[in-house]
Amino acid sequence: MSFGRAASTAGRRPAPTATCPCGSADSFAGCCGPLLAGAPAETAADLMRSRYTAFVVGDAAHLARTWHPRTRPRDTAPEPGTAWIGLTVVRTEAGGPGEDRGVVEFRARWRDADGVHDLHETSRFERVRGRWTYVDGDLG
Asked: Does position 33 have pLDDT exceeding 80, yes or no?
């Protein structure tokens, strides 16, 4: 299962003062909330964290908006059945404010009817018209 193609159980957005689902320890309003509302990500890692949060809360619009047009599937809507329960960023390579390409390696945990699972992916990101987009990823 690739994070880019993964399913999620749609949920409600966290309260602005709640801890962000991406695991940053920041508030939702100070972390992924503005990105889900349409603000551009400053780094590839910020975008990856916001995409994880979009899977947690079932935000298909954010997933579609942040998927590179060359690799975006027709349907980006998360499917019911998977609950995302944790994210760990393993490493980043490039993907900073002045760069156009970046790599983010991460582990994301999910729970479904079969138990708890771990997704390990190295994702590639590119800027399109000045905004970071998810291109694709390799499972590790």
From this structure: yes
